[in-house]
Amino acid sequence: MKVLGICGSPKQEGSTTLFGLKKALEKVSEHGIDTEIIELGKFKIAGCDACGDCKKTGYCSINDDFSSKLFNILDDPEVKGFVFASPVYFGGMTSQMKALLDRCVVFRRRGFNWENKVAGVLTIGNSRNGGQELAAMNLIASLMIHGMVIVPDSSPSSHFGGILHAGHPGGVECDDMGIQTSQNLGFKVGEITKKLHS
Ligand SMILES: Cc1cc2nc3c(=O)[nH]c(=O)nc-3n(C[C@H](O)[C@H](O)[C@H](O)COP(=O)(O)O)c2cc1C
Questions:
Q1: For residue range 169-185, what is the model confidence (pLDDT) as tens digits?
Q2: Do the Cβ atoms of 123 and 136 come closer than 8 Å?
């Protein structure tokens, strides 16, 4: 059983989103579940071109990193849960995350491969109220369309997932409340993944 963490930052290093995602996945591991991180900044993923081929073949016909490197990881039956983590860009997710999620329509069209897999979301913005919740809800909407089981961060924070403030005066490392929501998210993703898929 594995939980995949997807980091939607375009950065190859120094990503604050990756910092928060790691905090979440540390808590997933406490449930004895393996974790793996995909950093989208290290891959080239084109947007969906609506060719419709995946409806007929069950595969994406765009020849890029999504098809050659990520498809098999995302389609691995051992993966029972996900944490989707994105920086806030203009109140929404990054284009890298959006491209990935649009391309993942192939898993819906193969017969709802992601149905009942567990998913939690984490967002981070430079402003304290920079659209983190809006971006989180936007991520959640995409995941519901796969029939995934969306979970919040666990109590007592229990809201929309990991919500972080990169512009904290001490840096994201000092955003104690954001770190707590990320850890609580990871805990809940691990807890529900285990309950549903053991
Ligand atoms: C194009 C662009 C748009 C952004 N829009 C927002 C925004 O709407 N709200 C916000 O709080 N931060 C915004 N930011 C700041 C990032 O969300 C913030 O720096 C985040 O920590 C970056 O994550 P990363 O270090 O993982 O790449 C934006 C940054 C960029 C480059």
A1: 999 999 999 999 999 99
A2: yes
Is pTM beyond 0.85? Reply is yes
| β-bridge partners, 121 | 84
Q: What is the whole-number distance in angstroms between the Cα of residue 94 and the centre of ligand 1?
A: 9
Q: Is the CB of 91 under 6 A from ligand 1?
A: yes
What domains are defined for the chain?
Answer: 2-197 (3.40.50.360)
Contacts of 138 (CB under 8 A, 6+ apart): 92, 93
CA dihedral 19→73→191→92, nearest 10 degrees, is 50
- According to DSSP, the β-strands at 162-165 and 118-125 are parallel
Q: Measured in angstroms, how far is the CA atom of residue 126 from the centroid of ligand 1?
A: 6
